[in-house]
Design brief:
Layout lengths: L8 H11 L6 H25 L3 H15 L6 H4 L16 H30 L5 H29 L21 H23 L6 H20 L3 H26 L3 H32 L1 H4 L3 E3 L4 E3 L1 H34 L10 H7 L1
Antiparallel strand pairs: 1-2
Helix pairs in contact: 1-2, 3-5, 5-6, 5-7, 6-7, 6-9, 7-8, 8-12, 9-10, 10-12
């Protein structure tokens, strides 16, 4: 399997050997134990990185076998269960099992798609350097995922009352009953973003690692609390708003790796316009709705027995996270603008988030 990680496992080994002789006092003994613990963790991390296909297959096989053998509780990993009285679906603590299963599944799908589909495509496209082959495969997976789930999310939103009407984010709250399609969509997206924390540490670390990690954590917090607080309508809208630009950027990068520089630059221009429209204008409208409209349609109240979880502090919490996310998006747009300036100058589109050493390998 191609190398999915640039983790310097050797450094842990060297640190262990360098410090193994320092046993003269309690402080050095504690430091030696810390180094050994780090070394063991690095071994575990390396094993997980190198077995992203085999381990998920084993876990999924065990869960499936348990279900076939009718082991109590095993069905929670595979199925969502409806309310027999309404035929609809509500939030449940048991949803954690379903999310875990799909974290494992996405790990398998990503690794297998990259290994057996996208890597051969890259090689047939005459991409020779291993670093570029890996990046092509990573971007290809992102393109495939966001294309599918943006389409799925837009379908759900199109058939919803809040299609181009933000007031229905709040009207008739709490929105505790969901269709099967909507609940599956939301939990699959949540599983994907949790799995992205693993991916973030597997892929080559970039200059905006802190911003990317912050973005992922905020997204996960927003999805988690919007789900348990029955605010999934606005969650669906935010996901669709964010996912659209994430279709075009990976595709532009793939075209660049394949040598289609002119098409790449044109698509990058389209991406930049779509970013402005979706992530600044439309997402700005969602932030405005979050700031202003709840007061018009929702009373501040905490009543768990009614599945009602909207207080003034909850309102402020969501508004704060939305605004922090917008700040990160503005930071990224500054980088995008810098790339656009280089394209206009004739230098071609480059990912400013890449490290200098990575650019040398890619270019």
């Amino acid at each position: 399997m191609f190398n999915l990680s640039k983790i310097d496992f050797l450094s842990f080994d060297m640190s262990l050997k360098t410090n193994s002789g320092f046993q003269t006092n309690g402080t050095n003994k504690k430091y030696s134990k810390l180094i050994k613990r780090q070394y063991m963790l690095s071994k575990v991390a390396k094993y997980l990185v190198e077995h992203q296909i085999e381990l998920p297959i084993c876990l999924m096989a065990v869960i499936t076998l348990a279900y076939i053998l009718k082991v109590p509780g095993s069905e929670k990993f595979l199925f969502l269960h409806e309310n027999p009285k309404t035929g609809l679906y509500e939030t449940s603590m048991d949803d954690a099992y379903f999310v875990f299963f799909w974290i494992v599944t996405f790990t398998l799908l990503r690794a297998a798609t990259m290994e057996y589909i996208l890597t051969p495509i890259a090689k047939k496209g005459r991409i020779k350097k291993n670093a570029r082959i890996t990046r092509f495969a990573e971007q290809g997976w992102s393109f495939l995922y966001y294309s599918v789930f943006w389409t799925f999310g837009m379908y759900l939103m199109y058939h919803s009352p809040y299609w181009f009407d933000t007031t229905y984010f709040w009207k008739d709250y709490p929105h505790k009953e969901l269709t099967y399609s909507f609940k599956a969509y939301y939990l699959l997206q949540f599983a994907f973003w949790l799995q992205q924390l693993f991916v973030l540490n597997v892929e080559k670390r970039r200059k905006d690692f802190v911003e990317m990690a912050t973005h992922h954590v905020i997204t996960i917090l927003l999805m988690f609390f919007s789900y348990i607080f029955n605010l999934t309508r606005i969650g669906n809208a935010v996901l669709c708003t964010m996912d659209f630009a994430d279709i075009q950027l990976p595709l532009a990068k793939m075209l660049k790796y394949l040598g289609f520089n002119m098409i790449c630059d044109v698509l990058f221009g389209i991406f930049m316009v779509s970013w402005l429209v979706t992530r600044h204008y439309i997402y700005g409208c969602i932030i405005y709705s979050t700031w202003n409209e709840p007061r018009l349609y929702i009373e501040y109240k905490w009543a768990p027995e009614e599945d009602y979880y909207f207080t003034e502090n909850v309102h402020r919490f969501f508004l704060l996270l939305f605004c922090i996310l917008q700040v990160i998006i503005i930071f990224w747009f500054c980088l995008i603008s810098n790339v656009a300036y280089k394209v206009i100058k004739g230098d071609g589109a480059h990912d400013n988030r890449s490290s200098e050493s990575e650019r040398e390998h890619e270019d």
